[in-house]
Amino acid sequence: FTALGIPTVKDEEWKYTSLSGLTRLKFEMATETTVVELSALKAYRGDGNINLVFVNGNYSAALSNVNNIPLGITVTTLKDALVSNEQGVKSLMTRYRVEDEAAFVALNEALSNSGAYIETQANTVHKGLVHIIHVTSSNHKEIVTMPRTLINLGRSSEITVLESHIAFTDTITYFANALTDIFLAENAVLHYCKAQKESLKAYHIGHTRVWQERNSDLDGFALITGGKLTRNEVDCVLNGEGGNATINALYSVYKDQHVDNHTSVDH
Predict the structure, then answer these.
(1) Cα–Cα distance measured from residue 74 to residue 40, given in angstroms and rounded to the nearest whole number
(2) Residue 243: DSSP 8-state
(3) Distance CA 27, CA 243 (A)
């Protein structure tokens, strides 16, 4: 990240999005994990779903629901996954060449201290919802969070994942730099939605990288309504015949909100 630096409008990939407002601010890593708007969060979270909740970038076991995980599915923190399956998780985290990564991907990988890990075994089909919730709660500090998610689907498996990035007030300033890596084995199907309703004073830069093997199917959707500035990048690698990637999105913004959806599909 230090070598690449923050992109400017002189960079071809960023010519329509200026980060000058972001670079004028100073942020610090969050240590506070209390949700001020607890009742709003509980109303938003579906108690019947599998939930992983992160508050200000830190995992909250008390607010999560991972007690009744079906057989063939792993839903845990990235830290715990590295303990139970170190080599397998590291092989996923090193799938991409570091030299080819974007600046904000490198920043997330350098500073992220918490994350979500979802894995399905071969031939596992789960009809319920796995919900990852990243909530930034009211405080008086300008904080930065580094949400990190790994989703790894085994051969001929199918699952639905909702990844939410939310705040329940529009008056706090912060920076969320999210990275989600998705790996789909042969014939795997992922129904995936990223929903973003950050504070109207927040900056959200998110990367979703998808690696697809033969005949795998990504049913992808992004919903963007929050944030002062949002950059939503989706990069798909179709690494086999018959792979299908559906990348749909809806954004609803007003006044000075800025949204930049940037997609790449590598056949």
Answers:
(1) 28
(2) -
(3) 40
Q: Which two tokens stand for residue 54?
A: 């992160």
pLDDT in tens, 173-213: 999 999 999 999 999 999 999 999 999 999 999 999 999 99
Residue 135 tokens, joined: 């909530």
Tell me the per-residue pLDDT of 222-235, one tens digit each, with 9 for 90 and over: 999 999 999 999 99
| Pair of tokens at residue 74 | 């792993």
Rounded to two decimals, the pTM is 0.96
**Backbone angle region of 9, left / alpha / beta, with phi > 0 → left and psi within -120 to 50 → alpha:** alpha
Give the list of residues 6+ apart from residue 1 with CB closer than 8 angstroms, or none.
103, 104, 106, 107, 110
Of the candidates 97, 105, 55, the one whose C-alpha atom is nearest the C-alpha of residue 207 is: 105
Q: Is the pLDDT of residue 139 over 80?
A: no
Q: Check if the beta carbon of residue 212 is closer than 8 Å to that of residue 194.
A: no
Mean local confidence (pLDDT), 102-131: 96
- Nearest CA to 191 out of 229, 217, 152 is that of 217
227: left (phi over 0), alpha (psi -120 to 50) or beta: left
CA distances from 119 to 46, 72, 123, 243, 250 (A): 21, 8, 12, 20, 27
CA distances from 137 to 60, 61, 115, 169 (A): 13, 16, 18, 8
Round to whole Å and give the CA distance between 60 and 58.
6
